[in-house]
Amino acid sequence: MHNFLNNLNNLNNSNFFNFLLLFTATLFLYGCMGGGGYNAKPWLNNQNKQQAAHQNPSDLSVSEVNGEALEAPTLGNKVMDKSLAPVKVAILLPLSGKNAKLGQSMLNAAQMALFDIGYNNFELLPKDTKGTPQGARSAARSAIKDGAQLVLGPVFSPSVKAARQVTQSANINMIAFSTDWTLANNKTFLIGFLPFDQIERVIRYASFNGYKRIGVISPINSYGNGVVSAYQEIAQNANIKSSRIERFSPQDTNLSYIMRKFSDYDSRKANNNKFGAPYDAVLMPVGGPMARELGSFLNHYDLPPRTVKRLGTGLMDNKALAQDRTLNGAWFAAPDPQYRKKFERRYLATYKSIPPRIASLAYDATALSATLARIGLKNKNRPAFNHSAITNPNGFSGVDGIFRFRHDGIVERGLAIMEYRNGHIVVIDKAPRTFQHKAY
Fold this sequence. Notes:
alpha/beta; Rossmann fold; 2 domains; seven-stranded mixed sheet; five-stranded parallel sheet; 13 helices; 18% strand
């Protein structure tokens, strides 16, 4: 613990940062997926290789050994367990460079988890990637040289790709914060917020509530390509009739023609709207200004929210968008916010600032590593950082609700259904608390 604090102070003495800059950096993470031509198709091998859960997820707010919960240690009451062998876990973050504030906030969150779940012989090694692939490669090498038995991070896709070459050569597992699903494999696990569970959750919920005709308007980029492919597979299994799928270039400065065509505006007008709307709902895997623009065009072409339900991904998890009347009533799937409220309050009290959205990933990854270390040391005299322990089908319960890793390294989450309602985001269908009898 003391070694960690010394390392932390040496790396960065500032715990305060500007929320606006961090919020911008958080949004930027949705662009950290890289452009490597998304050849992997995780939506096609989701359930076939995933074992069934037989127990509730392990709660990362406490440490569990042999099914018995241990009281989580606190700053003033550390658990002294000298029988446990020393364990070193590295965390690779951009602690210098343009994303240094984001990296520091994630390190702050990791420090909180260390105080909650860690123990005296567990050491977290912060390593600075400098926000570059070269820096990530050097950080990974330094981590391995210093004896790291597990690597957490990095954040951005190019950095993960560079660091992965080092960790895999050393036969060390990595739990990365990137959303580039092409980097996942049986030694690189992605804990970031991926769209596949979000699409499945919201489409199945929409189908259950009678929305059987769904149109899709999606950007032509890596994220959009993955979402559309996942949607097509999920819609087929959910007996959804896809009215149409329209793609557009994110660089297109005038979407009027595409949206006019997508909405069947001319044919509806020619027939005095005799045949009604071409779909019951529209899946829009976009966020920010683009979500506003698409919502506005749907309204303009006589498809308001009361006629056509808006559906989205986690990109819609934005309080500002909830105030847009053209998006009122929109549904999207995301982690239930009630789970992270306690984390955010504690972070604010400790660091006097609001954590960026993905800081919770660093907390959960650190808590997970400390929990697996203690379980492994108690049972087999070595930390449980192996593939089978990380991919425990029962999963884990963290700041953002339940999650588990599939055998291919893709994270699977239990998500809530959220709705924009009169300018607010409200939960209309709670997130599951277990992966047993999964039906969402």
